[in-house]
Design brief:
- This protein is mostly beta strands and about 200 residues long.
- It is built from two helices and 16 strands.
- The strands form four sheets. Strands 1-2-3-4 form a four-stranded antiparallel beta sheet, with no helix packed on it.
- α1 packs across α2.
- The longest helix has 14 residues.
- About 10% of the residues have low confidence.
């Protein structure tokens, strides 16, 4: 679920594959948005409240024009099949949208559907959530590996720097897994694992 920026509406995603926009005044029936072919996992309003992004088990994010609810949404697709796109969030001006999946991937899409999305490798397992920082220059993700991964450098043509990884639990993924994820050299393997273990309190 997600509140609109003005607090007047609430959006919800459902296992019936629909998105609903609820008028919190109680004076109108909810608007029902149909088109997804899988459960809807996450929804997010743009900052101006005019569009809504919805992530689904069907592997797509759909961008709905709330000023014209009957209009067909923009459909954004991740790689592969059978892996849903979960949490979604718009950037400040609504031109970009992020979403994450169970492959440990975070996508930065153009909200208008143009071009190829930027792909961030956040984890070997699932990336459970993805959010923008308040200045919209960083993306933080939480993963099933027990880590928090922060990507920065987004202002430079959306080419993130090597991410900062924090151990959110006392579990540290094997060095080889993290090295493959981050394309580390052999010389960086041991140092990376030692840093993770230190952050985890070992």
């Amino acid at each position: 679920v997600a509140f609109s920026p003005d607090g007047a509406r609430l959006a919800s995603g459902s296992s019936d594959r629909t998105v609903r926009i609820w008028d919190l005044s109680g004076n109108a029936e909810p608007i029902v948005l149909s088109g997804h072919t899988g459960d809807v996992y996450g929804v997010a309003f743009s900052r101006d409240g005019k569009r809504l992004g919805s992530g689904s088990a069907d592997g797509t994010v759909r961008v709905w024009n709330l000023e014209a609810p009957g209009q067909q949404p923009v459909v954004l697709r991740g790689e592969g099949s059978g892996f849903g796109l979960d949490r979604t969030a718009f950037n400040a001006d609504g031109t970009k949208l992020i979403a994450n999946n169970d492959l440990g991937t975070v996508y930065i899409f153009s909200a208008d559907g143009r071009g190829t999305p930027t792909v961030l490798r956040a984890a070997h397992k699932a990336a459970d959530t993805a959010v923008f920082s308040p200045d919209f220059q960083r993306i933080a993700t939480g993963t099933d590996e027990g880590t928090i991964v922060i990507f920065s450098g987004l202002e430079e043509e959306l080419r993130p720097d090597t991410p900062l990884i924090w151990a959110a639990t006392r579990y540290c993924p094997p060095s080889a897994v993290r090295a493959q994820l981050l394309d580390f050299s052999d010389a960086q393997h041991s140092a990376d694992l030692a840093r993770c273990q230190s952050l985890a309190g070992r």
